[in-house]
């Protein structure tokens, strides 16, 4: 069993910043990709950013240059620094982590989601 606990969401004015974090715990042997997704009301969940075990990153075009994803492998934690926030960034943000647990069984887990609201 792998648990993900997210934190850092909230209400911010346009142009402001927030940092999200997501900590993974459980019988984890290794973590490969860690990512952030978001889902706005009435829309499908979309990829925001992903970071591989080697530190390679990829971003949605809508957030490139404003958001930064990073990870702390010692803490099994992924972060999303969000700057220059816009009202269209309003959504529930979910982290997603993949890797292996005991006996090299692969896992993929989602966080519970954290609300980010950007006011204009």
Describe this structure in words.
The protein has 120 residues and is mainly beta. 0% of the residues lie in helices and 62% in strands. It is built from no helices and eleven strands. The strands form two sheets. Strands 2, 4, 5, 6, 9, 10 and 11 form a seven-stranded mixed sheet that branches. It has a four-stranded antiparallel sheet with strand order 1-3-8-7, with no helix packed on it. The model has no long low-confidence stretch (mean pLDDT 96).
- Structural class of the secondary structure composition? mainly beta
Helix content: under 10%
What are the secondary-structure elements, in order, as H or E?
EEEEEEEEEEE
- Residue runs with pLDDT of under 50 for 5 or more positions: none
Q: In one word, what is the shape?
A: elongated
Distance between the termini: 40 Å
User: Major beta sheet, specifics?
Assistant: 7 strands, mixed
Percent range for β-strand residues:
over 45%
Summed over residues and divided by their number, the pLDDT gives a mean of 96
Rg, rounded, reads 14 Å
DSSP, total strands: 11
Count every helix, treating DSSP H or I runs of 4 or more residues as helices: 0
